[in-house]
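User: Could you check the structure of this?
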Amino acid sequence: MASQPNQRVVRASNLNFTVLEMGDSKSPLVLCLHGFPDTAHSFRHQMPALAAAGYHCVAPFMRGYSPTEPAPDGRYDSAALSEDALALIDALGHKNAIVFGHDWGAVAAYGAAAAAPDRVTRLVTAAVGYGSGFFEALVTNYAQQRRSWYMFFFQTKIAEAAVSLNDFAFLEKMWTDWSPRWKWAPADMEALKRSFRAKGTLEAALGYYRATLGPVLSMPVDLKMLAPAMNVPISVPAMMFHGRDDGCIGAETLAGMEKLFTKGLKLELVPNAGHFVHQERPDHVNELMLKFLKS
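Assistant: Sure, the predicted structure tokens are below.
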């Protein structure tokens, strides 16, 4: 079995997605969706383990993240991300899939499972919860407001200049803040910057925040009405990983989310890990994930 993933282009949602792929294409599909600031390389530790366990593992570069092309319709809202996940399952020749999403990829995964529970057999997510807890925290929780400063900053016109300055040094600072214990390899950061240096990636990445949070931030606040799309019950067996030291999203924002999972939610708070929990403690995450998938 190849130790390095194969890279190819897959057409879905009227877009050319570049994907990394490992394992037998006739095996059950595990679709791995990355977040920000990240790329498909996010799952480099999960793909070999999943392929060895008998899965067809595919990690796309999400819409707008080079080498995937920018969205031709300009859409970077969370509904578009969920539609992409379902379209990719079809395009890869599968009827359904296990979906593993991290950060924005988790948002896409929740949306896909809520919209089409017959197409998502198992759900694995990391670092971003489901439900209105996070949005409520933006109003009520000073610690989370402080962690989320960048989301507000990304709504402004100076964000592009700030993030791209000094060869995207901003992204290194984010990784350090969000995962304080993580000692990533220079090659991992270079893979991230390679995507962001390409024309259009930065605008797309900021577009995710502008499309999803822009409307929320410009509306009068009613705590009961926040994030209605994230309150649809999910009827798919689910597992979530969250780093105890996550400097981006506090574990307290996950409180009560299990009520929205009618087939159960296994929540794993991982010690000595931050926001990029699956990259920081891959053996731990892989072991628990494979146990969950086989159960």
